[in-house]
Design brief:
It is a single chain. By secondary structure, the chain is an alpha/beta fold. The protein has a single domain, classed as Rossmann fold. The chain is built from 14 helices and 13 strands. It has helices at residues 2-5, 18-29, 47-50, 67-77, 91-96, 98-117, 154-172, 179-182, 205-215, 234-248, 269-280, 305-310, 318-334, 339-353; strands at 9-13, 33-38, 58-61, 81-84, 124-128, 185-191, 194-195, 219-221, 227-228, 231-232, 257-260, 267-268, 286-288. The strands form four sheets. Strands 3-2-1-4-5-6-11 form a seven-stranded parallel β-sheet, with helices on both faces. Helix 4 (67-77) runs parallel beside helix 6 (98-117), helix 6 (98-117) runs parallel beside helix 7 and helix 9 packs parallel to helix 11. The longest helix has 20 residues, at 98-117. It is globular and about 60 Å long. The termini are close together. Residues 10-249 form the NAD-dependent epimerase/dehydratase domain.
């Protein structure tokens, strides 16, 4: 795994975000040369600064809507692998800003793939969408890659659209049966809800809880009974990396969609919140918000058997350990410790498990 990435040129959009920052540090640790393209971090504090991601990357700031700047940044770098993570990632924000959500998640994806078309060096593209890209029927069965795409809210539907954009580009410009001619293998990754140290996004469960715990204030939870496929951020990131490796090796059967979710059952929000409050201690607590606001899915489960069977992808942490690692990270940050070595230590510990 490490040897393949040593010296490899990787272009990564969204490196200033939570998942993008963790992926950047992991790739750099394995010896990859990483160039990032993203907007400024959207929160204060943020993982990019706290974990010193800038030390591991060539940092370029730009908007996905700026097609010429994006194309120049990618083509000039001549990457071999592209990870596309940049997005408007929040359901509730998509209600207040639907046009920007579609512009970023749909046209931004198209702009990345257009830039790839102009770069003869690219061999593998992993475009990250979400588990919310499925037409959610609010049933108990986990969704598989062959289930219909959809989306009630602008965020979910924009990610379903991004999936269709990738599928169209793959069929039109990077057909799997002609991989030996164009050499560009494109896949999409649909991950469940991720947790881990360094996420401070608005309207997300773990960041909302941490903000309340730090201020010693009760945290209002919108939908305690909602069920989600929770997992530590390093679990799906390992899946993205393994998928990129298969694509780089020009194995055409992997140029498709893959789910990345927990091996165990999904947990309700209230169980996560209670576990975190107990782990933080002191007066940490949460309350039910009687006005949950806009529509959000009540139940979502993900079937990741395809990734486990075809990629040999494993999830050694599980939700209990994922919560422990997450709380350890935030406690260390709250104590004012240097989070760069602590973050790398968690990556190394995960590598030893995986």
């Amino acid at each position: 795994m490490v040897s393949l990435w040593r010296g490899r040129r990787v272009f990564l959009t969204g490196h200033t975000g939570f998942k993008g920052g963790w992926l950047t540090l992991w790739l750099a640790k394995m010896g990859a040369q990483v160039r990032g393209y993203a907007l400024d971090p959207s929160t204060e504090p943020n993982f990019f600064q706290v974990a010193k991601v800038n030390a591991a990357i060539e940092d370029i700031r730009g908007d996905l809507s700026d097609r010429e700047r994006l194309e120049a940044a990618l083509v000039e770098f001549a990457p071999e692998v592209v990870f596309h993570l940049a997005a408007q990632p929040l359901v509730r924000r998509s209600y207040s800003d639907p046009l920007n959500t579609y512009a970023t998640n749909v046209m931004g994806t198209a702009h990345v793939l257009e830039a790839v078309r102009k770069s003869p060096s690219v061999r593998a593209v992993v475009s990250v969408t979400t588990d919310k890209c499925y037409e959610n029927k609010e049933w108990i069965w986990p969704y598989r890659e062959t289930d219909p795409l959809g989306g009630h809210d602008p965020y979910s539907s924009s990610k379903a659209c991004a999936e269709l954009v990738c599928a169209s580009y793959r069929s039109s410009f990077f057909p799997v049966d002609r991989l030996d001619e164009h050499h560009v293998a494109v896949a999409t990754a649909r991950a469940g809800n991720v947790i881990g140290g360094g996420d401070w996004s608005a309207d997300r469960l773990v960041p909302d809880l941490i903000r309340g715990f730090v201020k010693n204030q009760p945290v209002s939870i919108r939908r305690p009974k909602a069920v989600r496929p929770w997992q530590h951020v390093l679990e799906p990131l390992r899946g993205y990396i393994q998928l990129a490796e298969k694509l780089f090796e020009q194995k055409s059967q992997f140029a498709c969609a893959f789910n990345f979710g927990p091996s165990g059952d999904a947990w309700p929000v209230e169980r996560i919140a209670t576990k975190m409050a107990d782990a933080w201690g002191k007066d940490a607590r949460w309350t039910r918000d009687e006005d949950p606001g806009v529509h959000e899915a009540g139940s979502l489960r993900l079937d990741s058997s395809k990734a486990r069977a075809e990629l040999n992808w494993q999830t050694p942490l599980g939700i209990e350990a994922a919560l422990e690692w997450t709380m350890d990270w935030y406690r260390a940050w709250h104590q004012g410790r240097d989070m760069y070595p602590i973050t790398l230590a968690q990556i190394e510990a995960y590598e030893s498990l995986a």
